[in-house]
Write a structure and sequence with these properties.
By secondary structure, the protein is of the alpha+beta class. It is built from twelve helices and 14 strands. The longest helix is centred in the N-terminal third of the chain and has 19 residues. The chain is globular, with a radius of gyration of 20 Å.
Length: 345
């Protein structure tokens, strides 16, 4: 069904991104079968979720040259990307300005769109907790979200003060109108197209940095104890990575290394033996900081990256069909997170 274009999703994306990017996204990404039917002018939660995911994938490619090059090569060779999940980082801290702390800032978006928590993963080595959010209507085909929360209370008092300095005046990207539209969507499961068109740029914009330019001194403090919090200081809640689900991540890893791509040395293997992950190292980006004398300085820091995953299937005897293992693995996740930590400087 690759050539099927859900008219509502297409209209949402054309309004947000334009015709060219919309056409490329439809040619690039897997198309959930639940979207093969639609009612013109009435947008379901699955349709809005898919439109948001496609826009966020486009945003990740704009920030990751390695991911963009891989995707372009894949499509040019006649393939597609099976968008498995996107990952973002949050900070569970009371001093976060107008932004709800941690995962709460995104639960209020994801839940009305039809996502629910599908697993909790302690990331204790990083002072974080991760949670997977899968879509109730099409968990295997609409990309999941892996939302991690950093816990500043597990770090030093100096670190905690630096966190407050960085995020303490964060803005809330959700307008009162958007909040009302999300409530209506959660209650009804659908929105009029015009309302969905107004809501989409607001919720996509939530996946960004909501705080002002960080001070370089605070960044240095954060970097000493947590490369993940230092990353949040410059990138905020933008997608940390997006992930292509592939048939054989081991072969892909070898192929990409042979091309000279900056691949993770080893493939991460879950304890279950059914989930395998690898990634490019993070793309390096230039970000601005406020120096001690008040001037603006720029330095190179790790940005986002592109990941690959293979998920094994098992035969579910109760429902008599093959089921994809949609779980994650805390060990895998902590290994993948090093793609931004290893180059922090």
């Amino acid at each position: 069904m690759r050539n099927v274009k859900n008219a509502n999703v297409e209209q949402l994306l054309r309004t947000l991104l334009g015709a060219g990017k919309t056409a490329r996204l439809f040619a690039t990404l897997n198309h959930p079968q639940i979207l093969n039917e639609w009612e013109d002018g009435t947008v379901t939660r699955a349709e809005l979720a898919q439109a948001m995911n496609m826009a966020l994938f486009e945003d990740l490619l704009a920030r990751s040259a390695n991911g963009r090059e891989y995707t372009e090569e894949t499509v040019a060779a006649g393939g597609t990307v099976y968008f498995d999940h996107g990952a973002l980082r949050t900070v569970r801290w009371a001093e976060s300005g107008a932004l709800p702390p941690g995962e709460a800032a995104f639960a209020r978006i994801l839940r009305p769109l039809g996502f629910k928590i599908n697993g909790r993963y302690p990331l204790d080595r990083l002072g974080m907790t991760g949670r997977a959010w899968a879509h109730e209507d099409a968990p295997d085909e609409i990309a999941q979200f892996f939302v991690s929360e950093l816990h500043p209370e597990r770090f030093s008092a100096e670190f905690q003060q630096a966190v407050t300095n960085v995020i303490g005046a964060s803005r809330d990207p959700l307008t009162p109108q958007a909040t009302g539209q999300l409530w209506e969507l959660e209650r009804e499961g659908v929105l009029p197209l015009e309302a969905a068109q107004a809501l989409l740029p607001v919720i996509v914009g939530a996946f960004a940095r909501q705080h002002q330019m960080p001070r370089e001194a605070d960044y240095e403090v954060l970097l000493q104890e947590s490369a993940e919090m230092a990353w949040i200081a410059t990138e905020g809640n933008a997608f940390n990575h997006a992930t292509d689900r592939v048939a054989d991540v081991f072969k892909l890893s070898d192929d990409e290394k042979a091309k000279g791509r900056p691949m993770k040395p080893e493939v991460e293997r879950s304890r279950s033996g059914r989930v395998f992950q690898t990634a490019y190292r993070a793309d390096i980006v230039r970000r601005e900081f406020r120096s001690a004398n008040g001037s603006i300085v720029a330095r190179e820091v790790p940005g986002s990256f592109y990941e690959f995953i293979t998920r094994k299937r098992t035969f579910d005897q109760d429902v008599r069909r093959w089921e994809t293992d949609l779980r994650f693995d805390a060990g895998n996740a902590q290994g993948i997170f090093k793609m931004t930590a290893s180059q922090a400087a």
